[in-house]
Amino acid sequence: MTQDKDAPLREDIRLLGRLLGDTVRDQQGAAAFELIERIRQNSVRFRRDDDIAARRELEDILDALSRDQTIQVVRAFSYFSHLANIAEDQHHIRRSRAHLVAGSAPREGSLPHALQAVFDSGVTDAAGLVAFFDAALVSPVLTAHPTEVQRKSILNCETVIARLLDERDRMQLTPEEAAASDEALRRAVLTLWQTRMLRTAKLSVIDEVNNGLSYFDTTFLRELPRLYAS
């Protein structure tokens, strides 16, 4: 029987989507949840089945939205997109770990793959390669994407959710641990929902610097020691 490698991804997306739906129902009320769910279901039917009736109903629903309803709908689908992206990132980590555990050949984008490509190109003098890197300047550049508008508080929430998903993936949980993990995820999604998505004030230069430095803890400062130790 062929293993469905993407099944864990779908399970994570369903879990996060359910938690978000529960949060919307609890925070905004049953009417808001049902409205968002109707939009979701009609969107799926139209996209998957090319259902013209679903498209017409979707258009009628969207045309009738009030300003407050529109904000709720946009926030719900925006946050679902964020959560789905977190699940996809976690799945990429999951698949990378699976390849490492299986002893697969180095994957494209990894340092071992890059070094192997160098050797395959005919460079066999390891000493020359070492000498090159001794004199080379490798300088990371942190550049804000023009469309990057996520607040630090949003990124912090998403980091917590990603960590919780990773913990669930790496260990076999007891029923009590699984319940605690579910509750922690529920709280994290609730915090995300209650956090304003957009900034209301322009960042200062110091704010920009602090935002850039905040990435060091989860990137360079964690990975560089592992690189030098390998």
Give a description of the structure:
This protein has ten helices and no strands. The chain has a domain at 111-139. Helix 1 runs antiparallel to helix 4 (67-102). It is mainly alpha-helical and 230 residues long. It is globular, with a radius of gyration of 23 Å. The longest helix has 36 residues, at 67-102.
Secondary-structure element order, N to C: HHHHHHHHHH
Instruction: Say how many strands there are.
Output: 0
**How large is the share of residues in beta strands?**
under 5%
Helix share bin: over 70%
Please tell me the overall pLDDT.
87
Question: How does the helix and strand content classify structurally?
Answer: mainly alpha
Radius of gyration computed on alpha carbons: 23 Å
Main pleated-sheet profile:
none
- Measured between the Cα atoms of the first and last residue, the distance is 37 Å
Tertiary shape: globular
**Low-confidence region ranges:** none
Summarize the structure.
By secondary structure, the chain is an all-alpha fold.
Keyphrases for this structure?
230 residues, mainly alpha, 10 helices, 0% strand
